[in-house]
Specification:
Blueprint (H helix, E strand, L loop, with lengths): L1 E5 L3 H13 L4 E6 L3 H10 L4 E3 L2 H5 L6 E4 L6 H10 L3 E4 L7 H14 L3 E3 L7 H11 L6 E9 L9 H4 L7 H17 L5 E7 L10 E7 L5 E7 L8 E6 L2 E6 L9 E6 L2 E4 L7 H13 L9 H20 L3 E2 L6
Parallel strand pairs: 1-2, 1-4, 2-3, 4-5, 5-6, 7-10
Antiparallel strand pairs: 7-11, 8-9, 8-15, 9-10, 11-12, 12-13, 13-14
Helix pairs in contact: 1-9, 4-5, 5-10, 6-8, 8-10
C-alpha cells in the first residue's frame, strides 16, 4: 500500500513509518505539514520521496491509496474529510475530532464514499490485550464485576507543548489518554459505558488544560470501571485489572506503545502467568487496516470505535468540569 502522511508527527516517525514499510509492498510516498521546513526535514530524515504543504495536491498525486492523519487534534476533521472526498482510505489518529459531530461526519462520509475509515487505537492491536480479551471471553474469571485502568504516566519532554498548553489544538490528558482507556474498556468488556463521574486538575504540567483525571464509569451489565490518567506521574507504572466472580486478571506495564508487560491470572487454583505474542502493535494495526481495504475483515478499530471512545472522553471532561454525573451520548453510533 502506498501511503500519504498528513502531519510530520512524532508517532509517525517513531512507529507508523516503520509499520507501513514492514508489510509487503508497503511504502510512504509523501508527507505534508503546515510547515514547509518541517515537511522537508522530515522527508529527508525518513527517506520519503516527496513533501509539501498543499494537502489537495498531495491527495491528487498518482498512486496514493491510503492516508494517515496524525496532525494536531483540531485538524483531523478537515484533513480526513478532504482525504475521504478524494476517495482515499483513511487511518486517523485519536481523537477523531474536537466534537462528536465532527467525528460522526467523518465516519458517515467514508461510508457514503465507500472507503475504509479507521481509528489508530493501538492498544487493541497488542498481543497482551488480545490475550486478556480472550481470557475474559473464555470465562476464565467468571462474570466480570469491575475493571481498573491506571494510565498515569509522565509525558516525555519531546511530546510536551500543545498537549499541555493549547486547548484549541485539543490538548489535555483526557483527549490524549482517557480516550485510549475508553477504547480499551470497550474492547475488553464488549459493551459501551453509559454514565460517568469525574474530577480533573492541573497538577504540575498543564497550562490551560487538565494534566490529571480520575473517573468512574458504569456499564449496562453493572460492571464498574475506574480510570486514572495523568501526564505527571513519573513512577506510577501503568496497567489494568479486570475482576470477576471466579478470578482476576492483572496486566502490568501494558498500557504502552511497546509489546511489553506481564499478565497474571489469579483464581482459587492459584496464580498463573498468561502468555502472549509480543509482535509490534502498529504493524498489526496497519496489517488489519490493509486487510480491511482488501475486503478481508475490518480494521482493528473502525470509525464507530473512534466515535465511541471520543464520546466517553467528552463525557468524562464534562463530568469533571460540571461536577455532575453525565450520561454518555454516542451520537447514534
Amino acid at each position: 500500500m502506498k501511503w500519504l502522511l498528513v502531519g510530520a508527527s512524532t508517532i509517525a516517525a517513531e512507529y507508523m513509518i516503520w509499520a507501513m514499510r514492514a508489510l509487503p509492498g508497503g511504502s510512504v510516498a509523501q508527507v505534508t505539514s503546515g510547515s514547509a521546513a518541517r515537511a522537508a526535514d522530515f522527508a529527508a530524515r525518513y527517506q520519503i520521496p516527496a513533501w509539501g504543504t498543499d494537502l489537495d495536491a498531495a491527495l491528487a498525486a498518482p498512486g496514493i491509496e491510503a492516508v494517515y492523519v496524525s496532525s494536531t487534534n483540531e485538524k483531523h476533521h478537515a484533513q480526513a474529510m478532504a482525504a475521504i472526498a478524494a476517495g482515499k482510505h483513511v487511518l486517523c489518529e485519536k481523537p477523531l475530532g474536537m466534537s462528536l459531530a465532527e467525528a460522526g461526519e467523518m465516519v458517515r462520509a467514508a461510508e457514503a464514499r465507500g472507503v475504509v475509515f479507521a481509528t489508530n487505537h493501538h492498544l487493541r492491536c497488542a498481543g497482551s490485550h488480545r490475550a486478556i480479551r480472550a481470557a475474559v471471553a473464555q470465562g476464565r474469571i467468571g462474570r466480570v464485576l469491575s475493571m481498573r485502568v491506571h494510565h498515569a504516566v509522565h509525558l516525555p519532554p519531546h511530546l510536551q507543548g500543545w498537549r499541555l498548553n493549547d486547548p484549541a489544538a485539543g490538548g489535555g490528558v483526557i483527549p490524549d489518554i482517557t480516550v485510549h482507556d475508553a477504547d480499551t474498556v470497550r474492547f475488553h468488556l464488549g459493551e459501551d459505558p453509559v454514565e460517568v463521574v469525574a474530577q480533573m486538575t492541573q497538577s504540575g504540567l498543564g497550562q490551560g488544560v487538565e494534566d490529571s483525571c480520575m473517573s468512574v464509569w458504569s456499564t449496562p451489565s453493572g460492571v464498574q470501571v475506574f480510570a486514572h490518567d495523568s501526564f505527571t506521574h513519573r513512577f506510577a507504572g501503568c496497567g489494568l485489572e479486570i475482576h470477576g466472580t471466579e478470578g482476576s486478571i492483572f496486566g502490568r506495564g501494558i498500557m504502552t506503545q511497546k509489546p511489553v508487560g506481564e499478565i497474571e491470572l489469579v483464581t482459587a487454583a492459584g496464580r498463573e502467568r498468561v502468555p502472549y505474542s509480543n509482535y509490534d502493535l502498529y504493524t498489526q494495526g496497519v496489517a488489519d487496516f490493509e486487510a480491511a481495504v482488501a475486503g478481508r475483515g475490518r480494521p482493528a478499530a473502525d470509525g464507530a470505535d473512534g466515535v465511541k471512545s471520543l464520546a466517553i472522553a467528552l463525557a468524562v471532561r464534562e463530568a469533571a468540569r460540571s461536577g455532575t454525573r453525565q450520561r454518555i451520548d454516542y451520537g447514534g453510533f
